[in-house]
Amino acid sequence: MSDKNRRALGRGLDAILQSPETDITSKDISGDFVAGAIAEIDINLIETNPFQPRTEFDETALKELAQSIKEQGVVQPVTVRKLGYNKYQLISGERRLRASKMAGLAKIPVFIRVANDEQMLELALIENIHRENLNAIEVAISYQRLIDECNMTQEEVSDKVGKSRSAVANFLRLLKLPAEVQIAIRDGHITMGHARALINITDKEQQLKLLQQIIEGEMNVRQTEELAEKAKNPEAKERKQTNFIPEHFKSKIKTLSQTLNTKVKVTRNVKGQGSVVIDFKDEAEFDRIMELFNNK
Description:
Elements: H1 3-18, E1 38-42, E2 46-47, H2 59-72, E3 78-84, E4 87-92, H3 94-102, E5 107-113, H4 117-129, H5 136-149, H6 154-161, H7 165-173, H8 179-186, H9 192-199, H10 204-216, H11 221-232, H12 234-242, H13 247-260, E6 264-268, E7 274-278, H14 283-294
Parallel strand pairs: 2-4, 3-5
Antiparallel strand pairs: 1-5, 3-4, 6-7
Helix pairs in contact: 2-3, 4-5, 5-7, 6-7, 9-11, 11-12
């Protein structure tokens, strides 16, 4: 390639970088802000984030934030990426942006950075995860999107969000639950603790049956764990039934134990059949007990 052609190519690239329509990182010759700046810009120049994982915004909370912004201003700048001359796209802070518009602000403080689409999604998801009022299903979905759409491993996700790998894995397991259980978590009818007890139940119908019992019975997590354990191990429940001792048996067992002056155990199955076990510590005590029976 000739020097003349190289110079022409160079001028063409410079023209693209410095064009008001495409300028992203080079010196801005048109008075616009450059990437890396913290500035106040026209609020109407900011496009919403197409990668925003959050879809629902509480209207009452937005109005409260808008009132606070009217009185105190925007305390924390929103983060945007620069698309070109006077073109910005929100990366994080949509709640602040919406409330600022409700408050009637003409300009809003922003931090401007360069980010590609994958970085946009990653940043939006990570900011979303760190919201205080996020429910467990929203967190789990955000983790899964980081894995699927940002090509991260569970370990990389744990590093990004500052959580242990086991914590990330526990959230991801929630997405294997039936939709009805996930909705119950999202709507606050059960907690993540309740849900983790249900994960170990493999049958979907049984999970949903237990879910109804948990909600209707207003069970705590411990009660839920016991309920799930019984459902998972019906044999254990049967053994408990086998050893069930009716109340009128208990007084007679106590009387027999006092009469023999030793411990007496009684087992009984659901049919009423059972056995009586009398403890003795040595041969002399055995003889003493037998003598008591012989004298009756």
